[in-house]
Write a structure and sequence with these properties.
Jelly Rolls; 255 residues; globular; single chain; mainly beta; disordered C terminus
């Protein structure tokens, strides 16, 4: 064996641990983060978009980071997120109920201000209900919408994203609405995804209150522009959101 060949073999052996680590890290990044639990209505309307490929969802289907879930006008789905670190000796539970005509994406877990781990769900349209229970103290769930970030530490919440237009199609606005909350919820402007939920910029929506963040049509074209009302309006149980409340037959219950 020539000296040059020997050097190449030796270099390959030395780099093998690095390649192995890089491969395992890449696999961990795309590992499944949950699964589909059940589908109601027209099952063929529930779609998963993964790496630009679209296919029908079905119970027990594994979900991966960056997966986009879509429902049609006659379909709903329930998902269960795992890979969420629980409190000691307890089972963490993040259940996601997806209503009709909704679309959301599962984003990678990130480190936010103060070293907290945040599970990120990106809701672009429709209605989601979440049950978040028994997470570690340094972990939370954040729902990112085009005009807000909703922080959840341990509660049941139903929220919606919809475009509302005046008669004739003029004066459109994008609304993120908290329709139902059992437990304190924090609301941040969208550009503060990494901010602490205890920061001064966060608005607290108390249990039982409803709250709407509304941005103009111009702001809607810029998904990361600051919401116009989040820092000034006060949550009120008497303010009716534009989106009607979810049907009681599909409201989540903590188990």
């Amino acid at each position: 064996m020539s000296i040059q060949c020997f050097k190449l073999v030796l270099l390959s052996i030395l780099l093998l641990p690095f390649y192995t680590w890089a491969t395992l890290s890449n696999v961990a990044n795309v590992a499944d983060v949950g699964n589909v639990v059940e589908i109601n209505g027209k099952a063929e309307q529930v779609k998963i978009i993964r790496e630009k490929k679209t296919f029908s969802a079905k119970p027990a289907l594994q979900l991966f980071v960056h997966d986009i879930t879509q429902t049609g006008d006659l379909s709903t789905a329930k998902l269960l997120l795992k890979k969420v670190k629980p409190q000691k000796n307890k089972i963490a539970k993040v259940s996601v109920f997806v209503f009709e005509n909704s679309q959301f994406r599962l984003n990678p877990e990130i480190l936010t201000e103060g070293g907290r781990k945040s599970v990120i769900i990106e809701l672009s349209k429709g209605i989601l209900s979440l049950i978040v229970d028994k997470l570690e103290k340094d972990t939370d769930v954040r729902v990112k919408t085009p005009n807000a970030v909703i922080g959840i530490r341990g509660s049941i919440i139903t929220l919606s994203v919809q475009e509302v237009c005046e008669e004739g199609g003029t004066g459109c606005s994008l609304q993120t609405s908290i329709l139902q909350a059992n437990g304190d919820i924090k609301v941040l402007p969208p550009q503060l995804l990494l901010a602490s939920l205890d920061s001064k910029a966060a608005v607290t929506v108390p249990s039982g209150a409803m709250y709407t963040i509304s941005t103009t049509a111009k702001d809607t074209k810029e998904p990361f522009s600051a919401p116009t009302e989040a820092s000034t309006s006060t949550p009120s149980t008497t303010t009716e959101p534009s989106q009607t409340s979810p049907p009681s037959s599909y409201c989540p219950r903590s188990s």
